[in-house]
Amino acid sequence: MAKLEYFNSQHITNGFSYVSDEEKAIAVNNWRKMLVKEMPDRLKSKILKMDDRKMAKIMDTMKIRIRFHSDIENHKYLFEDPDYTTELAVKFYKKIKQSASVNK
Hints:
Helices cover 66% and strands 0% of the residues. The protein has 104 residues and is mainly alpha-helical. The protein is elongated.
């Protein structure tokens, strides 16, 4: 199974590789289409409006981290603002506040 995961990740990585600016533009366009297909509906407008340079950076970051197309949704944090109201975020903020007051 590990070997299949590796081959699939290589297929994704190599499918969006580029050498020239023209190939990069094509790869970014194809990556954007794939993201629109795989990401939740609420993120599709952000993906479509995103600058090509930024999308290229995201593509280069994501393509080496995913093994399957279904892994794409795990990277939705790249397209949405962080939620600081979750239980974990509130707990973390309290810890930071406590440590800051101790260090004074």
